[in-house]
Amino acid sequence: MTTTKRLIECVPNFSEGVNSTIIQSIADQIRKADGVQLLDVDPGKATNRTVVTFVGDPDAVIDAAFNAIKKAAELIDMRAHSGEHPRMGATDVCPLIPISGMTMEETAEYAHKLGKRVGEELGIPIFMYEAAATTPARKNLATIRAGEYEGMAAKIQQPEWKPDYGPTTLPEKHGATCIGARDFLIAYNVNLNTTSVRRANSVAFDIREKGRIKREGDRINGAIIRDTEGNPIRVPGTCKAVKAIGWYIAEYGVAQISMNITDISQTKLHEAFEACARSADSRGLRVTGSELVGLVPKQVMLDAGRYFLKKQQRSIGVSEEELIKIAVKSMGLDELGPFDPKKKIIEYLIQTDGENLVSLSLAKFAAETSSESPAPGGGSVAAYVGSLGASLGAMVANLSSHKRGWDDKWEYFSDLAETGQQFKNQLLEKVDEDTAAFNGIIDAIRLPKGSEEEKASRTAAISAATKNAIEIPYSVMELAYKNYDFLEELATSGNPASISDIGVGVACMDTAIIGAALNVKINCKDFDDAEYVESILKATNDILAKSSKRKAEILGKVDAVIAG
User: What is the 3-state secondary structure (H, E, C) of 9-76?
Assistant: First the structure.
């Protein structure tokens, strides 16, 4: 049984965005750390601020963060700092985000471990925020940071603002720091065709969750409307879990709405973009593009791509690369500079152990298969052939959704194309899984067998690895067989000009099933559970028989369409 690797992401914000030597010196503290991977260093000249993103084992992340905060305190002098973004110290904020194998509570414990160490060893006043906050008043970062660096010396003298860790006197050179634990946050700026901060703020107030203060008559100069207790009444904005302000960026010569999307389950990236576009349009402004500060989860970009394709009444059953491309162009994420998905999407940046087979070119995959190594072998090739069959089905569905005169059917074919993409992706995963299963048997065989305990452990490991090597090709058979319904539907309703591609897809599925079945059978020879072997071989032969029949039926329909 595999366990999920424990990963924490850390996104410290340092109050230096101009001096590249200082920025690199801080980043080097993370680069040289064992057990972490530096994902992104994103400096901003106008904000005079750099956002650094890295990920790794929790303890390693804490060590790297401590060293980076220490270096920032050595190199950054807050007495000379100015910038567009609110800030309170050389390291302004250092959030920890659970990525995998970690609860928010566990992540908050690590945040406190870091905060205590920084406060005690570096003498920096530390405030804990979000999920690591020690009081409700300290949950919100903006509340803690109010007054910024210039007002912090007096603020921390107040009993209610005593730091959670570290001194109660502000070190003038490096200020104070917020450390916390939070969900994944997207820092996102939307560009306007204006230089007016006031107009940008108007859009920001329209869309941010807390909205704006309600006023009589004129929204800017009218008297504030208050409730019975004298508190200002607010008009909520359109986007939940969004914080936003307007500012002017001299570097680009435009005003922006600067947002933090703190919960992407409540407001998606494309929803925030569209809300800005609607507000801007209502005020005679236009959104010209946007930019992501730091990294973004892949699913956020895929959701955006699907949204904009649906808006065009286009099929969403395309590759993830195409979905991301549509998202980038639709939101103008490349307006202010190139947008490289490999550098901005977190999943693409996290390294894997070695190179996956599915990442190889066709030529390299063929070369790897033809080498003297026994893996990849027939099982991986069977899964790959099946993925090609599903790809052909998705292609026909996409072509059908765009066929002239079939505009009323685009959603129907879009759903079929998306089904094909899902089957393709599932079968591609099996390509590497099959090779890993074979290697697992080899690893088990190589285990020591000196003592009786070692022999028993080795026998159990071989048995478990062999069963896995049986079940993976069997799952390929099941997946490939499920594709027949999808392909048959396209054979009867899809674009007739592409019917031959459906035929090839069907042949691919039959080949994948036969190839996977051979792997099931050969691995069953070495398995010592007779009852299990009898059951799995019966199920395998049943799928083989059904596959032969389905292939003949669907190819008969394909031939009928071709014959006219």
Answer: EECCEECCCCCHHHHHHHHHHHHCCCCEEEEEEEEECCCCEEEEEEEECHHHHHHHHHHHHHHHHHHC
Domain 186-349 has what CATH class? Answer: alpha beta
Q: Which of 164, 434, 501, 510 is catalytic?
A: 434
For helices 452-493 and 499-524, the axis angle rounded to 10 degrees is 160
Active-site residue, 402 included: no
According to CATH, the topology of domain 359-563 is: Four Helix Bundle (Hemerythrin (Met), subunit A) (1.20.120)
Q: Which amino acid is at 97?
A: I
What confidence tens digit (pLDDT) does each residue in 316-353 have? 999 999 999 999 999 999 999 999 998 898 878 775 54
Is 111 in a helix, a strand, or coil? helix
- Which position among 42, 63, 85, 174 bears the catalytic label? 85
DSSP state of 79: G
Query: If DSSP codes are grouped into helix, strand and coil, which group holds residue 186?
Result: strand
**How far apart, in whole angstroms, are the C-alpha atoms of residue 329 and residue 343?**
17
528: CB partners within 8 A, 6+ apart: 463
Architecture of domain 7-181: 2-Layer Sandwich (3.30)
Q: Does the pTM exceed 0.70?
A: yes
- Residue 434 a catalytic site member: yes
Q: What are phi and psi for residue 425, nearest 5 degrees? A: -65, -40
Tell me: the pLDDT tens digits for 344-370? 988 787 755 456 788 888 898 888 889
Strand partners, 129: 180
